[in-house]
Amino acid sequence: xxxxxxxxxxxxxxxxxxxxxxxxxxxxxxxxxxxxxxxxxxxxxxxxxxxxxxxxxxxxxxxxxxxxxxxxxxxxxxxxxxxxxxxxxxxxxxxxxxxxxxxxxxxxxxxxxxxxxxxxxxxxxxxxxxxxxxxxxxxxxxxxxxxxxxxxxxxxxxxxxxxxxxxxxxxxxxxxxxxxxxxxxxxxxxxxxxxxxxxxxxxxxxxxxxxxxxxxxxxxxxxxxxxxxxxxxxxxxxxxxxxxxxxxxxxxxxxxxxxxxxxxxxxxxxxxxxxxxxxxxxxxxxxxxxxxxxxxxxxxxxxxxxxxxxxxxxxxxxxxxxxxxxxxxxxxxxxxxxxxxxxxxxxxxxxxxxxxxxxxxxxxxxxxxxxxxxxxxxxxxxxxxxxxxxxxxxxxxxxxxxxxxxxxxxxxxxxxxxxxxxxxxxxxxxxxxxxxxxxxxxxxxxxxxxxxxxxxxxxxxxxxxxxxxxxxxxxxxxxxxxxxxxxxxxxxxxxxxxxxxxxxxxxxxxxxxxxxxxxxxxxxxxxxxxxxxxxxxxxxxxxxxxxxxxxxxxxxxxxxxxxxxxxxxxxxxxxxxxxxx
Length: 581
Prior knowledge:
alpha/beta; eight-stranded mixed β-sheet; four-stranded parallel β-sheet
């Protein structure tokens, strides 16, 4: 059934705080007036919260305070009352032990900010990858009209006449140093060239992937994902978003109207077409849990299996987000999916129109950046989900960023008990390892790290790199950056710290993977696995016995269900807390 806008005018949620002449109303309204707001702003018009993840310690989001001013302009123009609200900003490149540990905390903070304050609608100002899912998760839980505006990617990196992608070049050059191909001075010279403007990673890393997911889900205006951060059109997008949220409040167009099963299917297929990050798997599973939409790892495999990767961007391809925008951006990809019968065309978006209405007239301006299916980077892209006795609940791999010759492989395991053990051993010339081996890293999952850090793309041993080898099979319960590449199997579930079979693998065991068959197998009998598991002892508890670390450790679910907190699911609603004054 098509969306039916609510009647307007009507009493809005914010009037519980600001409407009327009671002592409580005067208390709420009067204090806000100390900032110089005239009385008629409290007349029942939509109050719009600009939930801003701006922070100077979140470099990807360092320009969002400036962008918020354009959102405010749009809200004012449409007759709303904009109020900028700082919210928790989890930065992947500064937070320790890892930003993923704080995604759920950020989502909780956003949810309670929306639930406890007089907000009729929200603009979610996001950038660095964890900020996008955390704000979407909070908005899904409150179900207050909400819309995403992303900060946008950085301009292309250029170094000695060649494109270099943020993140991707970092991993590549660090390997080149170990192989003796470049000097430390070269690496330092390239550092500034990788990050030459405001914005998120300019590769199809997790930030750009999640911006694309927001657009594919229908939670952002069409074209939002790819506009560079410093392009004037990003400011126009912000202002138009400010205008749109006011009408969304009047229509009562909520996340629950948009975040449907059909929307998540569109997002999964889109992630395959763009060569998106494996991190999108965890974030969309968590978001679906908040939106009360059934979604599983098997859905990721089934829906993405036949989707060709047509976006030729690093780390899977050659170009960067700037070229993707010039080529037409995500609307072109969505149109291609629609023409191929891989898009739920009727899915609703924040514009009030269907996703097909938004993209049907998109034009591809560069067919080397957004390729036709017959020239796809990978004919069967998406995220492959492997299962077997080493990963009973699943593990993931990104085929578009992997080496074809390693997609079916059998090799001897070389096991690292944690990331510190890996760092201590990997450069040792005496380490018994060659390119046929399978590198195994454990105790880096949601509980094991804790927080599930992006360490799954383990660098290769120097003695292997010096042979000219650039890839090996790597398996872990960790994540990897969306900017990374290689034949890297991630998110092994159950994780080692929870007693999964990964915990009992020994160096010398043989492991076989077959991506086409979706299998991952430890060459041990079921009796031997059972015996080892019976002898296994769980690691000691969390590194901190109190505070958020303890809450996280006790509450986090496995990667196969999104690594959210179990007690945060199924709480969608719009209840207003009781006034205490």
